[in-house]
Each structure stands twice: as structure tokens, then as C-alpha cells.
Write a structure and sequence with these properties.
The complex is a heterodimer.
Chain A lengths: L4 E8 L10 H16 L9 E5 L10 H9 L6 E4 L5 H14 L5 E8 L6 H9 L14 H16 L3 H15 L13 H5 L3 E3 L2 E2 L9 E9 H7 L4 E10 L14 H14 L8 E3 L5 H10 L8 H6 L16 H5 L6 H13 L13 E8 L4 E8 L1
Parallel strand pairs in A: 2-3, 2-4, 9-10
Antiparallel strand pairs in A: 1-7, 1-8, 4-7, 5-6, 8-11, 10-11
Chain B lengths: L18 H7 L4 E5 L5 E2 L14 E5 L4 E9 L12 E7 L5 E6 L13 E8 L5 E7 L2
Parallel strand pairs in B: 6-8
Antiparallel strand pairs in B: 1-2, 1-3, 4-5, 4-7, 5-6, 7-8
Classes of the chains: A alpha/beta, B mainly beta.
Amino acid sequence: MKNQLSIIGVGQSAFSRKGGLSVRELCFEAYREAMTDAKALKPKDIDATIVCTAPNFDNQRLPSPLISEYLGLVPKPTFELASACSSSSTGLRVACSMIASGLHNVIAVIGFQKMMELSSTEGQAVMGRADDTMFSSPFGTMMPLGHAMFARAHMDKFGTTPQQLAMIREKNSKYGAINEKAAFRKELTLEEILEAPMISDPLKKFDCCANSDGASCVIIGKSDMAKNLSEKPVSVLGLGMAVEKLNWSARNTLVKFDAAREAAKQAYEMAGVSPKDIDVAEVHDCFTIAEILAYEALGFADLGEGGKLIEEKETYIGGKTPVNIDGGLLSKGHPVGATGGSQIRTIVKQLRGEGDQVQVDGAKIGLVHNIGGVGTYANVTILGR
Amino acid sequence: MDFNNFGVISFTGAAKISPFVDHLFQGRFMTTKCTHCNRPFFPPQADCPHCLSDDMEWIEIKDAGTLVSYSTAMFGPAGFEKKVPYTLGIGRFREGIQILAAVADEIDSQNLKIGLKVKVKPVKLNEERVSYEFVLDQ
């Protein structure tokens, strides 16, 4: 599959907590930007769409035909696809296989989530059921608490500190402040982050990302066609996907996400590259601890050494491997189904040299790490020019 | 009794594995073990993915385990608003079994630490509902 598939266009809506856009309007924002980005692409060139969403958040049922209608793409094939927060990376994976099989030539992967119609507690209840509803949810589990369990175990075993967690947010808030699509544009100081109220110890308010509304669109096609449809197509070099027990409390280890490690191994193998070859990466920082676990899963740091990597600022621009230079989920907000597509958009722009203020000089190979649940679904995608 | 009677809020009703809840009402914390290949399960399973058998026996977990992580939630999902702050923990027991449970109020949060020896104790939340929590192994 390597080098057979190229990303032709990328787009996203602003990610926002203010509401004001319906599902179809959010998706159109992302689609318009991706179509404009692709330049020579016409709507008739799109053979099918994959609509990626975590459906429990949506009041709207059957969103894919609704979105097709609004985008003017009826009767092209469309369907909904879900793997929680990792949905749009899974969408890219499925699009790749549909194109490589010869079924279609060009597919638009659209991710969205409309989360601000739910109250914060309703939202936590929905996410709390992203767990074993027989044996875990009846105790009041939720996403911050699940990640807090991993943070505590990581701190206990490796000496990772609250300061190191805060440094993740400090970095991501610095880059998020200059991302016009981000929901949080304020640069935070280490003190502000450390003094924020506790959510689920050891995770404090700014260790957690926030729900928001948003949509993303990634248009992918056969590489030989992509050359004519885009000025700067970006190749898919490697795809990896794996899953862990949904029931995180029953896993063998609480200091790493094994699914992410397995997905990374697959993606590196397919791409024929190693961690040191990655010039820039987007990782799934739904919580600060998750970015540290990602460093270790992706081989940017050895197991237990992720805290030191941020302490040494190696994931800032200018460091060994810049990570989340668009602000990450922590600053952009996390409209579940849209997140993977937004991460892919950032890396595609980097590889084309269109990163503006956050461009990593000479970036040739980029990586997207997109998780769903408490490390449950994992997709790792490697892109290159 | 079935899973409608389990936990603060339940999301599942009757299941093949519902005797788990009956045992809790009777004060026993039980899980299943495959009689064919002898593998124990937690959460309890009615079916064994290793040998495809559905011939299970119930075994009681009485021994102490070790706390491997814990966290206190200052916010809760819908239905748990009045319970906050509440602490959940994960304990590791014999044969690699790991259990998520509430940490009993009697354990002072100052004394909580990874490595603490704990036991699982069934607790009646009211006449209709049952759960279980970690208490100190004494």
C-alpha cells in the first residue's frame, strides 16, 4: 500500500466551545477548506465519503446521508464509522483499503462532533460508558479518572512529576495560542497549570482537554491521480492499528498503552522508517499524561523517560522531535470524531512547508498518533513527501 | 437479582453471569473459572475464549491483593454528582486478576498508596442495590 495513496486536500472547521454551527454547517466548513486546498479537485471527482463520529454525542441519527445532501454528494456511497476519539484515523485507514482494492479512486474522510449540546456531566456520562458498562461504569468511571490511574502508576514507577505533566500543557498552550482554529488561545504559565483545581488526582484542570464542536476533512486518492489533483500531494507511508482491552482496570500494565505501541510498530514497519526519522508528530494529548505515554509508545523516549523528554524541551520546535505544534487536543479542543483529521491536516501542512509560524524546517516525514478511549483504540499513521 | 441491582447506576439487566450479583448480596465476592482449561476470569465470564467452553465454576476471592493505582474524582458523570469526591482503585489479586472497586471511606486518603494491601468487601448500597469496595487487609 505504501506510496500508492496520497492525501490531496485537508481542511477543518474552527474547533469551538461557543456553538453556533449545526453538524452539516461544521462539516461544510471542513469540506470547503479541503476542496479549496486540493485546487484542481471537483465534487464529481469524489467517489465516496466516510463520516467519522462517536455517535453517542449526536442528537442527529444517520448523519452521513444528511452531510452528503448538504455537500451535494448524493448518491455517492457514504456511511458512518466509529472508533471513539480515533474515528477519523480509522476512516483514513478504511479509505486507503477501499482505494487500494480498486473500488474507488478518491474518498473524502469527514470527521465531526457536536458536543456542546450536552452538559458537562452528560458528556462525562457518555464518555464514562466508553468503558465496561457492566463492571466499571457502575462505579462512576470517566475519562479523566481512567487516565489519572495511568498517571499515578507512571509517577509511582518512573518518578514522573506533576511539573513534567504541566510542561506538556505549557508547550501545547504556547503553540495553541497562535493556532487560529484552536478553542483555547491563551498561553498558560507553569504556575497557572500547577495551581489549577484538581479534576481526578493527579490530573488537574489544565491536564485535561475539553469537549468542543468541530469537523475535519481529509481527501485521499490514488497517487497517480493525486499528482493531477493537488500541487503538493502527501503520501501515506505507513498505517498501524491495534486495540487493547476496553476494561482498562483489567490490563496487565497501567504504565503504558500497549495498543499504541503495537500500532506504532506496524506503521514503522510498513513505512520502513524508525522513530529518529520522524521530523514532526501529532500525538493524542487528551490528557497531559497521554502525551508522555505517546512519546514512549512511539519510541521518541524509552519507557519511563517521557517526562525527561519534555523537561529537556526536545518536543518543542528546534528539539529532537517537535510534537503537537498546533496546540494538540489540549489547546485545540477535542471534537472526538474530528480530531484525527485535524491531526492529519497539521502534518500534511508541515510536510508541504505550509506551517507558517510553526513550520518545522525541512520536515519530510511526519507521524499522527490518534487514540480512542483510555488507550483502547490506537491508530498510527506515517506520512511523507 | 441481576445487573439492574449492581452499582450506583447500572446500565445492564439480566445476563448469564447474573449470579455474580446474587453472590454479592450474600456477602461473597466471586468470579468464574473455566472447568476445562482452569483459567480464572475477572470480570467473570460465562464463556471461555480459550477452549470455547461454557462450563464455569464460581471461585471466591478472599485473599488480600495489592493496590496498583487509585484516583479521587472531584467531578462525576451524571448520577454521581452527589457522590463526589469519590475514590476508585485498582487491585491486583492472585493469578493476575485485577479488580476495579470503590475505595472504602474508612481508608484515609492520606494513607492511600500504591502497594497497599486491600481486600474486596461486598457492600449493600440499600435493599435493592449491591456493590463492593476495597477495605484494608487486617
